[in-house]
Amino acid sequence: MTDPDTATENPPASAPQSGRVALVTGASRGLGAALAEALAPAYHVVAVARTTGALEELDDRIRDAGGAATLAPMDITNADAMAQLCRSIHDRWGRVDLWAHAAIHAPALGPAGYLDLKDWEKAVTVNVTATGRLISFLAPLLGEAGRALFFDDPRGGQKFFGAYGATKAAQIALAQSWQAESERTGPRVSILAPRPMATATRRRFFPGEDRGALASPGTEAERLLAAIRGDSGRDPGAIPG
Ligand SMILES: NC(=O)c1ccc[n+]([C@@H]2O[C@H](COP(=O)([O-])OP(=O)(O)OC[C@H]3O[C@@H](n4cnc5c(N)ncnc54)[C@H](OP(=O)(O)O)[C@@H]3O)[C@@H](O)[C@H]2O)c1
Fold this sequence. Notes:
7 helices, binds NADP nicotinamide-adenine-dinucleotide phosphate, globular, alpha/beta
């Protein structure tokens, strides 16, 4: 993609035959990167995150597997950049078939009475405000036939999880409203429940735990996609596997 300037694309080894387009927000690592890789055989993946090097490594893995990606190294809280990206997607493809929203800010754990206000504001901005804005940008691109994926982590109300739990709960509540509103009209909105995974977010909360006991993001991506595969509506071949 040449427009916006910040989005880059290398010539794909081979483009997916389906012509389907997936947008993965938070694609540089963890579950988002694993989903991008798992989706790439069937979709052209537009991969959004801030870390350019990690996006380039994802692009290499996708290309090695015969897929194609467009890298969009940008911050999801940058409204202008995200609007420009969505406009470019519209101009090039006219739609998004699947949006997986894995981007998350994991604020430090701590008592509610001692919130780090800067970190709290960042959690609200990334996890809630940007999600609401993205839903409004993506709804017209997804249209009736598209599908959106959100990833629950029900920590709301738990000790020391105030900032993460509250912003995650708000994000998911917003997605649930969109899901209920779209039930008859589409897009199909799914709220999925990943198992504990060995990711940066998990390490921030549980730095000393045995990561060998956690699921890998790759395994979870495959499991979550398998769970929705039978629920692909008018496009039963849409979810790879
Ligand atoms: N890990 C678990 O055990 C677990 C369990 C249940 C649910 N979940 C949920 O699963 C989802 C993915 O979590 P994860 O553990 O895979 O997270 P992760 O490995 O920490 O990855 C987070 C992703 O979000 C991106 N990101 C963060 N802030 C961003 C911003 N401002 N703009 C653009 N991208 C941004 C990061 O990329 P950059 O830093 O490069 O921008 C990264 O790609 C989240 O919704 C999380 O709540 C996780």
